Structures are given as C-alpha cells and as structure tokens.
Amino acid sequence: MKVLLLLGFVAVALAEVTRFDGEKVFRLRPRTEEHVAIIKEMAEGMEVDFWNPESPDLVDVDSDVDIHVNAAYADIVDNLLQQSELPYEVLVDDLQDAVDAQMDSQEISPRSHNYMKYNTWEKIEAWISSMASANPSLISKQVIGTTFEGRSMTVLKIGKKSSSTKPAIFLDCGIHAREWISPAFCQWFVNEAVSTYGSDAEMTTLLDQMDVIVLPVFNIDGYVYTWTNNRMWRKTRSRRPGSSCVGADPNRNFDAGWCTTGASSNPCSDTYCGSKAESEVEVKAVADFIRQNRSIIKAYLTVHSYSQLLLFPYSYTYQLAEHHSELMSVAEGAAKALRSLYGTRYTSGPGATTIYPAAGGSDDWAYDLGVKYSYTFELRDTGRYGFLLPESQIKPTCEETMLAVKYIAAHVLKNL
Ligand code: ARG
Ligand code: ZN
Question: CA–CA separation, 281 vs 169, rounded Å?
C-alpha cells in the first residue's frame, strides 16, 4: 500500500515536468524594420520563448534574436521565415535532446560536492552549511531573507576575520532561474577562494584586505522550478491575486528607472517588472542587505548567462555613467584576462548600448546607490547551447571567469 502511494506521488510529480520534444531554437538575423515587425507579430500570434533578447520589444535590426518555439509551431515559423527572406539558422533542432545532453560530465568527484556538475538546490543548500562549518576561520554565513516559497537566502562571507570592519565585494548568482552556469560559478568561486587562500598571492591579499559576500542562488524558488517542472523558467515564483501568471523578472524589479524601458507590465511576460519596485521578496532582501552594508560594499558583481558580455551601468538610460571610462577600462582588462586562458572573447560596455535598454536591473541600482564598481557578467556561450551549456564546460568557464573577477577585485583593492 505504501509503495503504491509512493509510486502514485512519483507519477504525479513526473507528469508535471515539461518536456521539449521536437521544440526548436532559431537564431534570427533581422536585416530590415520589416523583419523586426515580422518577429514581433510572430511573438503575438504564438507562444514564443525569447532566449536573447528576453522579450520581443527588445528586438532590433541587425541583432541576433534567439527564440525557442513549440514543436507545433516549428514548421510554421520555418515557412514564415523563408517566405519573408529573414536570415536565420536552427541553433537547436530538438530542445529535449539538448536538455538531456547538458548533463554530460563524466567527472567523478572524490569530494562530496561536485563542482563540475549542475547541483540541485538541495545539494547547494547542504553545501552552503558544510562550507561554512568546514572553514570557520575564513567563512561566516548569514541569512538575509526568505523567498516567496519560504526558502532561506543565505550569504557566505569569505575573508580573513578581522576586528575592524573590512571593505567588501558583493557577488550574486542565479538571478534568472534557467541560467544554470551562474550558480555553478558562485560555488566554484567559494571553493577556489578557500582552497587557494594561503597559496595564491592574489587571493590571499584579497581575502586579507577585503571580504567577498557571495549569494550562490538569488532566485532559489525559480531555480528549484527549473529542476522540477520547467527547465526554461526565468522569473521568480511569486503569485498575486488577479493574475494566473506566476513570477516577476527579478532583474527588472530593482528601483532603477523601474519599468520605464525594456521591461513589461504584463504579469505573463518573461520580463514582467513586478507590481512595484522591490515587490519580489528576494529583490527586497538583497536590496535591504546592500543598503545596510552600503558603506563597506565597494563592488557589486552579478552573474548571468549567456552571451559572453561584461556589462556595466547604465541600462535604464543611454546616458554614460559618471565613472564610464574607468568602468570601461577595468572591464576591458578583465575581459583580456579572461581571454588569456582559453581564448574566449567577451564584449564590454554599458548595458543600454551594448545589448539593449532595460530598466530595473540590479547593476544600475547598486551603482546609483554608490557602489562604483558594478558589473553584470553574461557567461558562456554565444548561443550554441545557450542556457543548456554542457557540464563539460563548467570547469573552463569558471576558470576563465575567475581571472576576470580577480582582475576586477585587484583593481577595487588598489583603489580603496
Ligand atoms: N540579460 C540581462 C537581463 O536582461 C542583462 C542585464 C544588464 N543590466 C541591466 N540592468 N539590464 O537581465
Ligand atoms: Zn539573466
């Protein structure tokens, strides 16, 4: 009887998982305003999941547009694109195959935590506790809030303990649920920090002089949902009366030109800005924490994927940031350091001109609060796998990204 009940539960849980059989990802290259109009019409007429940019209103002439469409629409889209002579290619022929292929790591880790695999929230949560208890002289943890579904948001503060207050760098990962390489990087960073402290001169100086405060998964509810229900989920999982659509885009929910551009006020959109700035409890928790620690936080780093970009303010306006030239040269130095390892090319610049204007982002908000060194990373790749970056790329991606983060940190330290 118990076994039957259990089987029943498993069947129900499995039935809810979204599969992507026969679904495709197209890369469109609109060359004319007419092409742009066709893409926008397409987005209205059928269900299109925008991978890059994240919403149809951000589509522009001569920019790549990656969209994921249902199996039922795949042929229609194909025909439509051919008829309208809109240049395109098929990036992913069968999305379910790509989902199945992302977990390709053959690495067996001698340790309990495997940094070369994507880890469930359950594993990451246990890892947060064990990292803190195993490294008491270097790591302390603090709960900064609770997610909509009631999960604890815990930051790890890494640095040599000191009696005086130290300046700090805030690093978060996993604002967007489906960008799995991002939380993998935060875990990698913490492990590198504790295992190279004392042997690597740069890391040692950094952690002696400063603290790095790491939030490994910002949008935990969304991340869990990408494991249990829908791999392509982006937003939070908040529910509100009056709409059956779930969640808001946490990176459109910060109080920086909130919902003025590149965001949607439609709760069903993937770039929904929320009912007001900081309506999402996760955003409020992070913003409160940074406000409280405003005097010590010297840099804000946030990690997304994909596109291989190093962005800095502004995104809510085309105006150049007050510290534009310094931010640009640090970004270029960081991108150069990153490239030195495996030749991976990054593009640097302000969000608005480098990709598209989009308000309500954490980087702009932190910058306007007074955190000068505010950067958004968009990690690998440029679209071959997109959000489904294979596990075999976790190691090289994290290794090269470490070089960029350390470059920025060294600059921050030098300019305290
Ligand atoms: N792809 C990221 C997003 O759309 C880029 C963030 C850049 N910063 C910003 N404030 N829009 O959320
Ligand atoms: Zn993102």
Answer: 22
| 200 vs 21: CA distance, rounded Å | 46
Q: Which residues pair with 50 in a beta bridge?
A: 67
The CA angle 60-226-193, to the nearest 5 degrees, is: 90
Q: What is the pLDDT of residues 178-229, one digit of tens each?
A: 999 999 999 999 999 999 999 999 999 999 999 999 999 999 999 999 999 9
Across residues 54-65, what is the average pLDDT?
Answer: 93
Q: Which amino acid is at 277?
A: A
H and E: helices and strands count for the chain: 13, 12
Distance of CA 378 to the CA centre of its chain: 7
Q: Which residues of 193-206 are buried (b: 16+ CB within 10 A; e: fewer)?
A: bbebbeeeeebeeb
179 flagged as catalytic: no
Pick the catalytic residue from 192, 280, 378, 391: 378
Nearest CA to ligand 1 atom 11: 358
Structure confidence at residue 11 as a pLDDT band (50, 70, 90): low
Q: What separation in angstroms does the CA of 128 have from each of 95, 122, 133, 136, 228?
A: 32, 10, 9, 12, 21
Give residue 279 CA to ligand 2 midpoint distance, Å: 18
Question: What is the DSSP code (8-state) at residue 272?
Answer: B
- Averaged confidence pLDDT in the chain: 95
The Å distance, Cα 54 to ligand 1 centre, comes to: 9
Question: What token pair was written down for 208?
Answer: 């002696």
**CA dist., res. 70 & res. 18, Å (int):** 12
- Euclidean distance between CA atoms 384 and 77, whole angstroms: 20
Let me know: does 330 contact 408? Beta carbons within 8 Å.
yes
Backbone angles phi, psi at 153, to 5 degrees: -95, 115
Whether the predicted pLDDT of 3 surpasses 80: no
Residue 6 has pLDDT above 60, yes or no: no
User: What is the bridge-based pairing of β-strands 24-28 and 211-215?
Assistant: unpaired
Q: Which region among 72-86, 102-116, 346-360 has the lowest average model confidence (pLDDT)?
A: 102-116
Q: Which residues surround ligand 1 with Cβ inside 6 Å? A: 54, 251, 304, 311, 315, 351, 358, 361, 363-364, 376
SS3 of residue 24 by DSSP: strand
Model confidence pLDDT, tens digit, residues 341-368: 999 999 999 999 999 999 999 999 999 9
What span, in angstroms and rounded, lies between the C-alpha atoms of 274 and 170? Answer: 24
